[in-house]
Design a protein that fits this description.
The protein is an all-beta fold. Helices cover about 0% and strands about 45% of the residues. Strand 17 and strand 18 form a beta hairpin.
Length: about 325
């Protein structure tokens, strides 16, 4: 339970949609491991897979995952079912690697900087570390815009964020975000405007109300808990944004609920989670949740998207897997 909650807080996100069990490849496409599984959304790490080519188009990304938290290789799963190796024994993907919401852009650390690769066109945009950056500092993806045209990354060391950069796509232009001290960007509105959290102001626990600020207009957006708290001594604050919807988690005893708000701060939905099920993140048309097996070493995690219209299965992954789906970042 603690592992699942920690993963969710580190932006363990999923996207609506299945993966083809096996699709034919054209002769021009590079060889890659293909999932052959039933049901179609079941994911298994291949015994062997080619390393992702350094250049050239490969296909739309559907999932970045590793089957275990620390000693397993990390793979990129494409929407057509092929898999590429991203690295051996990499740091768990959440918080370091990212896919854009549309699956086109893959972001990952590179030689102290950060690179974002166009999986459909082949272009690579690189963000160099700032002058005088510390050896233990690194970039991490913070938030995507829902249209995949903007990505905020943070340059940090041991939790201390030194600066934020905004990357614009498809051109890859980068620019520093000039934010007030202590303000953290927790999401991007449809206009591309960052939504900011005053970290010090909301550091007290328990926390029943959170006020966010639109970076450009200064307008406030307040999220309020009704039946529980948004953070306490055992749970950190979680804020996630997808288009015109803002999500946070509500804790009441040992129960968790996902609260959904519009951009005015009006609550438009509340999803209580049953025992053994944990929040993952917003996806197209709903919110992704994971059912964690009691025996994670031998069982399987079941992920599905929940919306007012019902539930839809997403992916079935190894019980100890750490995953990042399109749109997955710190927030």
């Amino acid at each position: 339970m603690n592992r699942a909650l920690g993963g969710a807080s580190a932006a363990l996100m999923m996207i609506v949609g299945g993966v083809a069990a096996c699709q034919a490849r054209s002769p021009a496409e590079p060889d890659a491991a293909v999932i052959v599984a039933s049901p179609a959304y079941a994911v298994e790490p291949p015994a062997q897979a080619p390393t992702l080519p350094s250049t050239g188009p490969v296909g739309r990304g559907a999932l970045v995952y590793t089957a275990c938290p620390s000693r397993c290789p990390t793979f990129l799963l494409l929407a057509d079912g092929r898999q590429y190796l991203l690295g051996e024994r990499t740091v768990s993907p959440p918080g370091n690697l990212t896919l854009s919401p549309d699956g086109r852009w893959l972001g990952r650390p590179a030689d102290g900087g950060y690179e974002v690769r166009d999986l459909l066109g082949g272009a690579v945009h690189r963000l160099e570390p700032p002058t005088g950056g510390d050896a233990d500092s690194a970039y991490s993806p913070w938030a995507w815009s829902a249209d995949s045209r903007r990505l905020i990354v943070g340059y940090h060391a041991s939790g201390d964020v030194r600066s934020y950069q905004a990357l614009e796509f498809p051109g890859g232009r980068a620019g520093a975000l000039d934010l007030p001290r202590g303000q953290e960007p927790v999401g991007l509105l449809p206009s591309g405007e960052p939504l900011l959290l005053d970290v010090a102001r909301h550091d007290r626990r328990p926390l029943k109300r959170v006020t966010l600020t639109q970076a450009d207009t200064g307008r406030a957006l307040t999220l309020t808990s009704g039946a529980g708290v948004l953070a306490d001594a055992d749970h950190g604050l979680t804020v996630q944004v997808r288009g015109e919807r803002v999500y946070t988690l509500e804790y009441s005893g040992d129960r968790i609920a996902v609260l959904e708000f519009d951009v005015t701060g009006r609550q438009v939905g509340r999803l209580p989670l049953p025992s053994g099920q944990f929040p993952v993140g917003p996806v197209d048309g709903g919110f992704a949740v994971v059912q964690v097996p009691q025996d994670q070493a031998r069982g399987r995690q079941k992920l599905e998207a929940v919306s007012p219209s019902g539930r839809r299965p997403l992916f079935d992954v190894p019980g100890l897997a750490a995953v990042v789906l399109p749109g997955g970042a710190r927030h």
